[in-house]
Amino acid sequence: MEDLLARAAAAERGYLLLDYDGTLVPIAARPDLARPGPGLVELLTRLTGMPGWQVAVVSGRTVEELRRLLPVAGLYLVGVHGAERAAPGEGVERICDPAFREALRHLVGAADELARPEEGFVLEDKGVALALHYRQAAPSRAAEVGRRFVRLARTHLPPGTWRLLGGKKVLEIRPAGTDKGRAVAGLLADYPGTLALYFGDDVTDEDAFRTVRRQGGIEVLVSPVARPTAARYRLDNPSRVWEFLGQLWVRRAETGGGGQGLPTHKHKGRGDGRVG
Fold this sequence. Notes:
OTSB-like
């Protein structure tokens, strides 16, 4: 990754685009357990202070939740895979068909009876999306409940207003016409001429990888193993992402593009490699 680090550090204008779960923090058994490690908020605060650079967290979580987890004044936030967006210090913009939102409320009630916590399911109502987490469910039961979840969505939601998204042990119903790629394109359009770096771990990040690649940026898959992806580079885990971001900040600081002092933190696992 040295060549990428050198290229990024040399850019006078850049945009860091970071997924949250699996990228900045390790994947947890339940969404509420994936908390920011010691030093993450400080690191992001320092990165947002780099002259000429912007920093965004692009996540499946809601903007409200991201603000609680990452109280960093200078962060741009994209929530619910692009259905919510917020600039620093501004309100949340939601991209959602009103008919979909109303129908989703009825789907939540029906799905709540389907997803039983004692069987390992977590139903997450995001207001403009609905996610069924099954990481702790038995595989056979997860398959059955997943099929019933999709049938309920087809029953309750107007055709053409929604999209089914599969991720790491999760099924999510979200508004049609929203994805991380479109959200990232919108962010970059506001800051033309910047070098974009996108870090993500899930299939939900592939749209963003393709967007950044088309614009001549750097796409980094966060995964301990290689897999088919639009990203050209790979880091093993969130610890390696932290290391890359910390080194970027240090090098920018050495050229007058940063500040002083840097937090350190490690997750289990080491190593990096290049994909493709």
